[in-house]
Fold Putative ABC transporter ATP-binding protein YbhF.
Amino acid sequence: MIQVKGLSKIYTKARGKNKEAISNSIVGLKDVTFHVRLGEVFGLLGPNGAGKTTVIRHLMGFLKPDAGFARIKSLDCWEESKEVKAFVGYLPGEMNFLKEMSGLEFLNLMAGMHGNRLVFSRRRDALAEHLDLNLKQPIKKMSKGMKQKLGIINTMMLDAEVLILDEPTSGLDPLMQKVFIDLVLEEKNRGKTILISSHMFPEIERTCDRVGIIRAGKLAAVEGIQKLRQEQRRTFEITLETPEQAQLICESGLKAGRIGANQVFVEIQGDMNPLLKVLAQVQVKDFLQRMTELEEAFMQFYERGEAVEQSIISSHV
Ligand SMILES: Nc1ncnc2c1ncn2[C@@H]1O[C@H](COP(=O)(O)OP(=O)(O)OP(=O)(O)O)[C@@H](O)[C@H]1O
Protein backbone atom coordinates (compact mmCIF):
# COMPACT_ATOMS: atom_id res chain seq x y z
CA MET A 1 0.00 0.00 0.00
CA ILE A 2 2.83 2.37 0.94
CA GLN A 3 6.21 1.94 -0.68
CA VAL A 4 9.32 3.94 0.15
CA LYS A 5 12.46 3.05 -1.77
CA GLY A 6 15.95 4.52 -1.56
CA LEU A 7 14.44 7.75 -0.24
CA SER A 8 17.12 10.36 0.34
CA LYS A 9 16.94 14.02 1.26
CA ILE A 10 19.65 16.57 1.92
CA TYR A 11 18.47 19.81 3.47
CA THR A 12 20.59 22.78 2.46
CA LYS A 13 20.56 25.77 4.76
CA ALA A 14 21.89 28.42 2.40
CA ARG A 15 20.98 29.17 -1.17
CA GLY A 16 24.46 30.47 -2.03
CA LYS A 17 26.89 28.90 -4.43
CA ASN A 18 27.16 25.13 -4.51
CA LYS A 19 30.20 24.97 -2.25
CA GLU A 20 28.53 27.02 0.47
CA ALA A 21 25.31 25.05 0.22
CA ILE A 22 27.12 21.73 0.54
CA SER A 23 29.01 22.88 3.63
CA ASN A 24 25.67 23.80 5.21
CA SER A 25 23.86 20.64 4.27
CA ILE A 26 22.06 18.37 6.73
CA VAL A 27 21.24 14.77 5.97
CA GLY A 28 17.47 14.48 6.31
CA LEU A 29 17.22 10.92 4.97
CA LYS A 30 19.69 8.48 3.55
CA ASP A 31 18.53 5.60 1.38
CA VAL A 32 15.38 4.76 3.38
CA THR A 33 13.47 1.71 2.14
CA PHE A 34 10.37 0.10 3.65
CA HIS A 35 6.81 -0.78 2.76
CA VAL A 36 3.49 -0.89 4.59
CA ARG A 37 1.01 -3.59 3.62
CA LEU A 38 -2.70 -3.12 3.10
CA GLY A 39 -4.45 -3.15 6.50
CA GLU A 40 -1.19 -2.97 8.43
CA VAL A 41 -0.26 -0.56 11.21
CA PHE A 42 3.37 0.45 10.76
CA GLY A 43 5.36 2.46 13.31
CA LEU A 44 8.21 4.76 12.47
CA LEU A 45 10.16 4.95 15.69
CA GLY A 46 13.10 7.22 16.36
CA PRO A 47 14.42 10.04 18.56
CA ASN A 48 14.07 13.76 17.86
CA GLY A 49 15.61 14.74 14.56
CA ALA A 50 15.81 11.14 13.29
CA GLY A 51 13.94 11.84 10.05
CA LYS A 52 10.40 10.64 10.83
CA THR A 53 8.68 13.88 9.76
CA THR A 54 10.89 14.05 6.67
CA VAL A 55 9.64 10.61 5.58
CA ILE A 56 6.05 11.69 6.23
CA ARG A 57 6.45 14.99 4.36
CA HIS A 58 7.62 13.01 1.33
CA LEU A 59 4.58 10.72 1.62
CA MET A 60 2.31 13.76 1.69
CA GLY A 61 4.00 15.27 -1.36
CA PHE A 62 5.36 18.31 0.49
CA LEU A 63 8.98 17.43 -0.28
CA LYS A 64 10.62 16.28 -3.50
CA PRO A 65 13.06 13.40 -2.98
CA ASP A 66 16.70 13.98 -3.89
CA ALA A 67 16.84 10.27 -4.70
CA GLY A 68 14.43 7.35 -4.50
CA PHE A 69 10.67 7.58 -4.29
CA ALA A 70 7.62 7.35 -2.06
CA ARG A 71 4.43 5.79 -3.42
CA ILE A 72 0.99 5.16 -2.01
CA LYS A 73 -1.27 2.76 -3.88
CA SER A 74 1.34 2.81 -6.67
CA LEU A 75 0.93 6.59 -7.10
CA ASP A 76 4.03 8.73 -6.85
CA CYS A 77 3.65 10.97 -3.79
CA TRP A 78 5.46 13.90 -5.43
CA GLU A 79 4.24 13.64 -9.05
CA GLU A 80 0.68 12.67 -8.14
CA SER A 81 0.33 14.31 -4.75
CA LYS A 82 -3.18 15.65 -5.38
CA GLU A 83 -4.55 12.18 -6.14
CA VAL A 84 -2.69 10.71 -3.16
CA LYS A 85 -4.07 13.32 -0.74
CA ALA A 86 -7.61 12.37 -1.77
CA PHE A 87 -7.42 9.04 0.05
CA VAL A 88 -4.97 9.85 2.84
CA GLY A 89 -5.90 11.22 6.27
CA TYR A 90 -2.92 13.20 7.57
CA LEU A 91 -2.23 14.40 11.09
CA PRO A 92 0.75 16.78 11.05
CA GLY A 93 3.15 17.08 13.98
CA GLU A 94 2.13 20.69 14.37
CA MET A 95 -1.17 21.94 13.09
CA ASN A 96 -2.15 25.48 12.20
CA PHE A 97 -5.73 26.28 13.03
CA LEU A 98 -7.90 29.24 12.19
CA LYS A 99 -8.00 30.39 15.78
CA GLU A 100 -11.05 32.62 15.54
CA MET A 101 -13.24 29.61 14.76
CA SER A 102 -14.79 27.10 17.13
CA GLY A 103 -13.73 23.45 16.83
CA LEU A 104 -17.02 22.67 15.12
CA GLU A 105 -16.68 25.49 12.57
CA PHE A 106 -13.16 24.35 11.74
CA LEU A 107 -14.18 20.71 11.28
CA ASN A 108 -17.17 21.70 9.14
CA LEU A 109 -14.91 23.81 6.96
CA MET A 110 -12.47 20.90 6.52
CA ALA A 111 -15.28 18.41 5.88
CA GLY A 112 -16.79 20.79 3.30
CA MET A 113 -13.49 20.76 1.41
CA HIS A 114 -13.66 16.97 1.20
CA GLY A 115 -17.29 16.66 0.10
CA ASN A 116 -20.59 16.78 1.88
CA ARG A 117 -19.97 17.75 5.50
CA LEU A 118 -23.14 15.97 6.67
CA VAL A 119 -21.58 12.65 5.65
CA PHE A 120 -18.78 13.23 8.13
CA SER A 121 -20.84 14.68 10.98
CA ARG A 122 -21.66 11.32 12.62
CA ARG A 123 -18.05 10.26 12.75
CA ARG A 124 -17.05 13.78 13.90
CA ASP A 125 -19.47 13.69 16.83
CA ALA A 126 -18.58 10.12 17.83
CA LEU A 127 -14.87 10.97 17.81
CA ALA A 128 -15.46 14.15 19.84
CA GLU A 129 -17.34 12.08 22.39
CA HIS A 130 -14.61 9.42 22.59
CA LEU A 131 -11.94 12.06 23.00
CA ASP A 132 -14.09 14.13 25.36
CA LEU A 133 -13.71 17.38 23.43
CA ASN A 134 -16.24 20.20 23.48
CA LEU A 135 -16.33 21.28 19.83
CA LYS A 136 -18.24 24.47 20.57
CA GLN A 137 -15.21 26.01 22.25
CA PRO A 138 -13.24 28.64 20.33
CA ILE A 139 -9.90 27.17 19.19
CA LYS A 140 -7.98 30.10 20.70
CA LYS A 141 -9.16 28.98 24.15
CA MET A 142 -8.09 25.36 23.64
CA SER A 143 -5.05 23.88 25.37
CA LYS A 144 -2.30 22.06 23.41
CA GLY A 145 -3.88 18.68 24.18
CA MET A 146 -7.34 19.90 23.12
CA LYS A 147 -5.93 21.14 19.81
CA GLN A 148 -4.27 17.76 19.33
CA LYS A 149 -7.65 16.09 19.87
CA LEU A 150 -9.18 18.44 17.30
CA GLY A 151 -6.43 17.45 14.85
CA ILE A 152 -7.12 13.75 15.47
CA ILE A 153 -10.88 14.24 14.87
CA ASN A 154 -10.14 16.17 11.69
CA THR A 155 -7.91 13.35 10.41
CA MET A 156 -10.15 10.46 11.36
CA MET A 157 -13.62 11.84 10.58
CA LEU A 158 -12.90 11.78 6.84
CA ASP A 159 -12.71 7.97 6.91
CA ALA A 160 -9.70 7.89 4.58
CA GLU A 161 -8.24 4.54 3.44
CA VAL A 162 -4.76 5.42 4.62
CA LEU A 163 -3.89 7.29 7.81
CA ILE A 164 -0.54 9.00 8.29
CA LEU A 165 -0.12 10.25 11.83
CA ASP A 166 2.91 12.27 12.89
CA GLU A 167 3.47 11.95 16.65
CA PRO A 168 -0.29 11.65 17.25
CA THR A 169 -0.27 11.45 21.05
CA SER A 170 1.94 14.45 21.64
CA GLY A 171 0.21 16.63 24.26
CA LEU A 172 -2.35 13.96 25.23
CA ASP A 173 -2.62 12.84 28.84
CA PRO A 174 -2.22 9.08 29.63
CA LEU A 175 -5.99 8.47 29.67
CA MET A 176 -6.41 10.09 26.26
CA GLN A 177 -3.36 8.23 24.93
CA LYS A 178 -5.22 5.03 25.76
CA VAL A 179 -8.39 6.29 24.06
CA PHE A 180 -6.31 7.14 21.01
CA ILE A 181 -4.72 3.66 20.96
CA ASP A 182 -8.24 2.15 21.01
CA LEU A 183 -9.25 4.41 18.12
CA VAL A 184 -6.27 3.26 16.07
CA LEU A 185 -7.06 -0.40 16.77
CA GLU A 186 -10.67 0.22 15.75
CA GLU A 187 -9.53 1.77 12.46
CA LYS A 188 -7.18 -1.16 11.89
CA ASN A 189 -10.11 -3.55 12.36
CA ARG A 190 -11.99 -1.55 9.76
CA GLY A 191 -9.16 -2.35 7.31
CA LYS A 192 -7.29 0.94 7.32
CA THR A 193 -3.60 1.11 6.50
CA ILE A 194 -1.89 3.26 9.12
CA LEU A 195 1.57 4.76 9.52
CA ILE A 196 2.39 6.29 12.90
CA SER A 197 5.56 8.14 13.79
CA SER A 198 6.57 8.28 17.40
CA HIS A 199 9.45 8.39 19.83
CA MET A 200 7.40 6.54 22.42
CA PHE A 201 7.81 2.78 22.45
CA PRO A 202 4.62 1.86 24.41
CA GLU A 203 2.13 3.39 21.95
CA ILE A 204 3.95 1.80 19.02
CA GLU A 205 4.06 -1.52 20.85
CA ARG A 206 0.30 -1.45 21.47
CA THR A 207 -0.78 -0.45 17.99
CA CYS A 208 1.74 -1.56 15.38
CA ASP A 209 2.29 -4.81 13.50
CA ARG A 210 5.78 -3.82 12.35
CA VAL A 211 8.19 -1.08 13.25
CA GLY A 212 10.85 0.78 11.31
CA ILE A 213 13.59 2.07 13.58
CA ILE A 214 15.08 5.27 12.26
CA ARG A 215 18.06 7.23 13.48
CA ALA A 216 20.12 10.01 11.93
CA GLY A 217 18.18 9.72 8.66
CA LYS A 218 18.90 6.00 8.25
CA LEU A 219 16.56 3.08 8.76
CA ALA A 220 18.40 0.82 11.21
CA ALA A 221 15.91 -2.05 11.11
CA VAL A 222 12.37 -3.07 10.23
CA GLU A 223 11.05 -5.64 12.67
CA GLY A 224 7.79 -7.33 13.54
CA ILE A 225 6.51 -6.14 16.90
CA GLN A 226 6.66 -9.71 18.28
CA LYS A 227 10.37 -9.95 17.49
CA LEU A 228 11.02 -6.53 18.96
CA ARG A 229 9.25 -7.60 22.15
CA GLN A 230 11.18 -10.87 22.34
CA GLU A 231 14.50 -9.18 21.82
CA GLN A 232 13.77 -6.27 24.07
CA ARG A 233 16.14 -6.08 27.00
CA ARG A 234 14.35 -5.61 30.29
CA THR A 235 15.98 -4.56 33.51
CA PHE A 236 14.46 -5.33 36.90
CA GLU A 237 15.35 -3.93 40.29
CA ILE A 238 14.69 -6.49 42.99
CA THR A 239 14.80 -6.00 46.76
CA LEU A 240 15.38 -9.19 48.76
CA GLU A 241 14.85 -10.11 52.38
CA THR A 242 18.59 -10.56 53.14
CA PRO A 243 22.01 -9.73 51.60
CA GLU A 244 22.62 -13.49 51.23
CA GLN A 245 19.60 -13.76 48.93
CA ALA A 246 20.89 -10.82 46.90
CA GLN A 247 24.21 -12.66 46.60
CA LEU A 248 22.43 -15.82 45.48
CA ILE A 249 20.90 -13.92 42.55
CA CYS A 250 24.24 -12.40 41.60
CA GLU A 251 25.78 -15.90 41.52
CA SER A 252 22.86 -17.52 39.67
CA GLY A 253 24.32 -17.12 36.21
CA LEU A 254 21.85 -14.38 35.31
CA LYS A 255 23.13 -11.04 34.12
CA ALA A 256 22.84 -9.37 37.52
CA GLY A 257 24.64 -7.01 39.88
CA ARG A 258 24.38 -5.43 43.30
CA ILE A 259 22.82 -1.97 43.70
CA GLY A 260 22.45 -2.13 47.50
CA ALA A 261 22.97 -4.58 50.35
CA ASN A 262 19.62 -6.27 49.71
CA GLN A 263 19.07 -4.95 46.23
CA VAL A 264 20.09 -6.23 42.81
CA PHE A 265 19.42 -5.46 39.18
CA VAL A 266 18.81 -8.24 36.67
CA GLU A 267 18.87 -7.81 32.92
CA ILE A 268 16.76 -10.20 30.86
CA GLN A 269 16.54 -10.58 27.13
CA GLY A 270 13.47 -12.48 25.97
CA ASP A 271 12.61 -15.48 28.15
CA MET A 272 11.67 -14.61 31.76
CA ASN A 273 11.72 -18.23 33.04
CA PRO A 274 15.35 -18.33 34.23
CA LEU A 275 14.65 -15.28 36.43
CA LEU A 276 11.42 -16.76 37.80
CA LYS A 277 13.22 -20.01 38.74
CA VAL A 278 15.82 -18.09 40.76
CA LEU A 279 13.19 -15.89 42.41
CA ALA A 280 11.34 -18.99 43.59
CA GLN A 281 14.31 -19.70 45.91
CA VAL A 282 14.31 -16.27 47.65
CA GLN A 283 11.94 -13.86 49.34
CA VAL A 284 11.17 -10.84 47.26
CA LYS A 285 10.29 -7.60 49.09
CA ASP A 286 10.01 -5.41 46.01
CA PHE A 287 10.16 -5.96 42.27
CA LEU A 288 10.35 -3.08 39.80
CA GLN A 289 10.87 -2.98 36.07
CA ARG A 290 13.02 -0.07 35.01
CA MET A 291 11.43 1.95 32.21
CA THR A 292 13.01 0.84 28.95
CA GLU A 293 14.40 3.87 27.27
CA LEU A 294 13.55 4.01 23.62
CA GLU A 295 17.22 4.62 22.97
CA GLU A 296 18.00 1.31 24.64
CA ALA A 297 15.33 -0.56 22.70
CA PHE A 298 16.46 0.54 19.31
CA MET A 299 20.19 0.78 20.02
CA GLN A 300 20.20 -3.02 19.92
CA PHE A 301 19.10 -2.84 16.30
CA TYR A 302 21.23 0.15 15.48
CA GLU A 303 24.36 -1.46 16.90
CA ARG A 304 23.59 -4.59 14.93
CA GLY A 305 23.17 -2.51 11.77
CA GLU A 306 26.52 -0.85 12.37
CA ALA A 307 28.16 -4.21 13.02
CA VAL A 308 26.87 -5.49 9.69
CA GLU A 309 28.16 -2.38 7.93
CA GLN A 310 31.53 -2.78 9.65
CA SER A 311 31.86 -6.40 8.60
CA ILE A 312 30.99 -5.46 5.01
CA ILE A 313 33.67 -2.75 5.10
CA SER A 314 36.27 -5.15 6.61
CA SER A 315 35.50 -7.83 4.06
CA HIS A 316 36.29 -5.29 1.32
CA VAL A 317 39.57 -4.04 2.84
N1 LIG B 1 13.34 22.44 6.75
C1 LIG B 1 14.49 21.95 7.21
N2 LIG B 1 15.66 22.55 6.94
C2 LIG B 1 16.84 22.06 7.38
N3 LIG B 1 16.94 20.92 8.10
C3 LIG B 1 15.81 20.27 8.41
C4 LIG B 1 14.52 20.75 7.99
N4 LIG B 1 13.59 19.88 8.44
C5 LIG B 1 14.24 18.92 9.12
N5 LIG B 1 15.59 19.15 9.10
C6 LIG B 1 16.63 18.30 9.69
O1 LIG B 1 16.45 16.98 9.20
C7 LIG B 1 16.66 16.04 10.24
C8 LIG B 1 15.40 15.17 10.41
O2 LIG B 1 14.35 16.01 10.90
P1 LIG B 1 12.84 15.48 11.11
O3 LIG B 1 12.00 16.67 11.40
O4 LIG B 1 12.46 14.62 9.97
O5 LIG B 1 13.02 14.58 12.42
P2 LIG B 1 11.93 13.85 13.33
O6 LIG B 1 12.39 12.45 13.47
O7 LIG B 1 10.57 14.08 12.81
O8 LIG B 1 12.13 14.61 14.71
P3 LIG B 1 11.09 15.03 15.89
O9 LIG B 1 10.81 13.77 16.67
O10 LIG B 1 11.90 16.00 16.69
O11 LIG B 1 9.90 15.65 15.24
C9 LIG B 1 17.04 16.84 11.48
O12 LIG B 1 18.45 16.88 11.55
C10 LIG B 1 16.51 18.21 11.20
O13 LIG B 1 17.27 19.20 11.83
Remarks:
- Confidence is low (pLDDT under 50) at residues 307-317.
- Residues 11, 26, 28, 46, 48-54, 93, 199 surround adenosine-5'-triphosphate (CB under 6 Å).
- The first strand starts at residue 2 and ends at 12.
- Residues 233-289 form a domain with the Alpha-Beta Plaits fold (CATH 3.30.70.100).
